[in-house]
């Protein structure tokens, strides 16, 4: 079974490669992503609403490597743009918000896909 979904910005081949057949490792890794990601997305949302660019940049920075680990290169690159814009004080606030909403719309459906994959490995 292939776990590469380029149309969804999701490629789990790296995860499966380093898991080396360990369903337990896959389940634990997905669990960690499913626990951290919604919290980080909410933190960024709240920070943007409050114009707390430091907090938005910090949360985006924490999310970025997780997206890379789970083979979400488009999401990872976009969240990096959000991080950089936030670090610079969001001089183009509407662009930052637009990019964040775009990346959120890619990430959220992948949470469901990952939950389904996780369930198949239990």
Please give the structural blueprint.
Elements: E1 4-5, E2 10-11, H1 13-19, H2 23-49, H3 53-69, H4 73-87, H5 93-121
Antiparallel strand pairs: 1-2
Helix pairs in contact: 2-3, 2-5, 3-4, 4-5
Contiguous low-pLDDT stretches (5 residues minimum) are none
The rough form would be described as elongated
Order of helices and strands: EEHHHHH
Number of strands: 2
Mean pLDDT: 94
Q: How much helix is in the residues?
A: over 70%
Number of helices: 5
Give the spatial strand order of the biggest sheet.
1-2
Strand content: under 5%
> Class by helix and strand content?
mainly alpha
Distance between the termini: 16 Å
What can you tell me about this protein's structure?
The structure is a single chain. The protein is built from 5 helices and 2 strands; from the N terminus they run ββααααα. It has 122 residues and is mostly helical. The model has no long low-confidence stretch (mean pLDDT 94).
List keywords for this structure.
single chain; 122 residues; mainly alpha; two-stranded antiparallel sheet; 2 strands; 78% helix; 3% strand; elongated
In short:
The chain is mainly alpha-helical and 122 residues long.
